[in-house]
Design brief:
Number of strands: 0
Largest sheet: none
Number of helices: 17
Strand content: under 5%
Radius of gyration: 24 Å
Helix content: over 70%
Structural class: mainly alpha
Shape: globular
Mean pLDDT: 86
């Protein structure tokens, strides 16, 4: 343990200390009532937008894939996690947890197994592979529903052994993670035939995916039998469990994961695909695999953000995930700076505190109807005056990647050795 602590760099301790300090300051202000419920909601929405935008920045800013599908995966994570906690709090059953858990596990095993098998077979095109994945996923999903339903009773009894507050928090934590993983698996299946498209066509395809998801949730009560979701009328009764603590924990985890990936060999490969796919391919980088990896990871973050969002206000309506709203994280990423983690997080909170909070109090009522005029104007001004965004390529020291020491080919012999040879 001591060796591990000594191995942590100074900039990491400084970053963690500052992050915990920010959390404590906000928590104290919330506890004493300096920040009321309105500002509490605004701050939590800023954290949700930061997680969502970080996922998009991975896909677009670092990997170069122009995607408008984040809100589709955002919606999947929101509704999946909300259904889990709804069933636990109002229906008093862990059916949502067990079924979703088994779906994620069995579908994940099926995808990994088939991926391993197809890697040994040459000549399988993307559409044929997609058909195989889709059939296997449907079979695994049907089996998961049966097994999950059978496990609901024992798991409900086990969770009821915990104190009521603890069991609810455990279910909430699992719901957020499972909702994110479900969004990631859907993104993998969707990305199989779509990731081979060019950047512009890929953006149009992902925008179409967002529209499809919104329409499906409009009819979720009639088409899929989820009566509690109530289709286009909106889902109510979701427990409001997304506290500032959980927002901070998930946001910190996403930032650390993003930083560690970008500073690894995976991160260098991801950025190389953005810079030049042909050059990356000539260096032996599997461009398709790294595109898929980045797209799935960004969708995982979107699903987690959606789950947290669902438990802020306790109400979900499909119209909140329409294609117009899907431009919000894109605007945040561009404002903060493409390829900047620091800029994305800062721009997310600025977006929430200023545009969604302060201007609502200062400007006259009815300003919200002008938001779709103000937002594009801000984006246009930013792209004209500072195309690199507010922060450009700036990163705080913890997130800044340190370059390796320069090694000279003809390194002169140490002075002591030279003197010794002369002696």
């Amino acid at each position: 343990m001591v060796k591990f602590i000594r191995g942590v760099s100074r900039k990491t301790w400084v970053f963690l200390g500052l992050a915990v300090g920010v959390y404590l300051i906000v928590q104290v202000l919330l506890s004493v009532g300096v920040l009321n419920d309105f500002w509490s909601t605004i701050i939590r929405q800023g954290a949700v937008m930061a997680i969502l935008a970080l996922g998009l920045n991975l896909i677009y800013g670092f990997n170069g894939q122009f995607s408008l599908g984040q809100f589709g995966f955002y919606a999947i994570g929101a509704y999946a996690s909300a259904d889990v906690t709804y069933r636990w709090t109002l229906l008093q059953t862990a059916n949502g947890v067990t079924v979703l858990f088994m779906v994620v596990v069995l579908v994940g095993v099926a995808i990994l197994g088939l991926r391993q098998l197809l890697s040994r077979i040459r000549g399988v095109d993307a559409l044929s592979a997609f058909a195989l994945y889709l059939v296997l996923t449907i079979v695994a999903g049907a089996l998961a529903v049966v097994i999950g339903g059978a496990l609901a009773g024992p798991v409900t009894t086990l969770l009821n052994l915990l104190p009521p507050g603890w069991s609810l928090q455990v279910v909430f934590f699992l719901a957020i993670l499972l909702g994110g993983l479900l969004a990631a698996e859907v993104s993998f299946l969707f990305g199989l035939p779509v990731l081979m498209l060019g950047s512009d066509y890929f953006g149009i395809a992902t925008l179409g995916f967002t529209i499809i998801v919104k329409v499906l949730f409009d009819n979720s009560d009639t088409m899929f039998g989820f009566a509690e979701m109530k289709g286009a009328r909106g889902m109510v009764g979701i427990p409001q469990l997304s506290s500032w603590f959980w927002m901070f924990v998930f946001l910190l985890a996403v930032v650390v994961i993003t930083r560690n990936i970008l500073q690894s060999s995976y991160g260098r490969a991801i950025v190389s695909v953005r810079e030049d796919e042909i050059a990356a391919m000539s260096m032996g980088i599997d461009v398709a695999s790294f595109k898929t990896f980045t797209f799935v990871l960004g969708s995982l973050f979107a699903g987690i953000a959606g789950g947290l969002y669902a438990h802020v206000g306790g109400f979900l309506v499909p119209d909140s995930f329409n294609f117009v709203k899907s431009f919000d994280p894109m605007i945040v990423v561009v404002l903060g700076g493409l390829g900047s983690v620091t800029g994305t997080v800062a721009a997310s909170f600025i977006w929430s505190l200023v545009l969604e909070g302060l201007l609502r109090l200062v400007l006259p009522q009815g300003f919200e109807t002008w938001r779709y005029v103000v937002y594009p104007l801000l984006l246009l001004v930013m792209m004209l005056l500072k195309p690199s965004g507010l922060f450009g390529n700036f990163e705080i020291p913890y997130l800044r990647q340190a370059l390796p020491a320069l090694r000279l080919k003809n390194n002169p012999a140490p002075a002591e050795a030279t003197q010794g040879s002369k002696a």
